Amino acid sequence: MTDFGDGSRPLLFELLGPLRVRRYGQDLNLGPRQQRLILALLLTRAGEPVSTPEVITMLWGNQPPASAKNIVHRYVGNLRHLLEPGIAPRAQGCWITSDAAGYRVVADESNLDLLAFRKLAEEARAAADTGNPDTALAAYTKALEMWRGPCAGASDMLVDQLAPFNAVDYECAAAAVEAADLSLRLDSGRSMLNMLRRMATHHFFDEALQARFILVLSAAGQQAEAIARYHSLRRRLLDELGVDPGAEVQAAYREILKRSNVRREDNVVTRFEYPDPKIVRLVSMIRRSDGAIVAVVTSVTGLAATTERWLVDDAAVWTEFPRDLAIVDLAKRPEDNQA
Fold first, then answer.
1. Residue 19, domain CATH
2. Which of its termini does the chain have fewer beta carbons within 10 Å around, N or C?
3. In a 3-state reduction of DSSP, which class is residue 305?
4. Tally of domains in the chain
5. Buried b (16+ CB within 10 A) or exposed e, 256-283
6. pLDDT digits (tens, 9 = 90+) for 158-176
7. Helix, coil or strand: residue 220
């Protein structure tokens, strides 16, 4: 992740993460929540007008106060003075203009990260289309380094009308999927691994993104985490949406199991004694990049009997994953210890 801009511009608007405006490199205090939301909404439109009714709907839904229009005008006035301290009272200034269509922020790719992101993404697609994948991946990487988190941090500002912000998030995720596909072809996904990890955390139910993350983890030699990620996603989809992973994620999972070159064993029940006694079900067995065999297990309750399987004792590592998944090292068989 890199900072957008070099600090030489009078104002820099940053939307690809928590909302931030900097004047010559110094962060501005953007004021109360509703005022920040108005600026964030204007920036998502990237120079296109936003009507007063749209602003009112975002702030109050279908129950605005009688003074809603005056409150919006006051907040816009405050933003104009914040962005341009010397502006005369009731003047529009040069940063936020208004006409019959609504309010708009004057910005371009040199001072708004969203527009800079779009420009780089288009350059990447053009390079890929003309047979220059290395140039394309470099442009995607530069674009995605500007992504700091969900658009404007809107969900943290307790806004209900998230559609404009979600649209920007989906746009960034789509570019990440395209970049991951290129990276898998060129460098086994290594250049995209850290970025995909950050983005996949915030887009847990974006199955196209999760499928690429699983594939990139596997290609980078992190088979255990790739398998654990699949089962964590599957459990959350079942618990929260009542569905199984879609075709894209299922195909990615089958692919990483083929890469592991280790026999898959389902529905094997064992007892694991470290750090606390746990009854677990073996999800799969995989070979790590260092050659060690590990088991991915999930906890099981209500079983009267267990099938013994030898696991590492004192040296066992129980790595916590979301919900009840864990990874444990497999030890030698009993007959090996008697040699």
1. 1.10.10.10
2. C
3. coil
4. 2
5. bbebbeeeeeeeebbbbeeeeebbbebb
6. 666 788 999 999 999 999 9
7. coil
What is the span of the domain harbouring residue 65? Answer: 1-178
User: 214 is written with which tokens?
Assistant: 């699983």
Cβ–Cβ < 8 Å for 209, 144: no
Q: Which residue has 């929540």 as its token pair?
A: 33
Token pair recorded at residue 310:
């030898």
DSSP string, 251-264: HHHHHHHHHH-S--
Neighbours of 91 (CB within 10 A): 12
Q: Nearest-CA neighbor of 161 among 242, 290, 50?
A: 50
Intra-chain end-to-end CA distance of the chain, in Å? 53
Q: How many CB atoms lie within 10 A of CB 2?
A: 8
Predicted TM-score (pTM) of the model is: 0.77
Residues 23-70 pLDDT 10s: 988 999 999 999 999 999 999 998 899 999 999 999 998 899 999 999
User: Rounded to the nearest 10 degrees, what angle do helices 163-187 and 207-219 cross at?
Assistant: 30
Please identify, among 178, 201, 227, the residue that sits at the C-terminal boundary of a domain: 178
Statement to judge: residues 135 and 272 lie in one domain: no
Domain co-membership, 122 together with 24: yes
| Angstrom distance (rounded) from CA 21 to CA 28 | 6
Element (H, E) at 94: none
Domain boundary among 123, 144, 178: 178
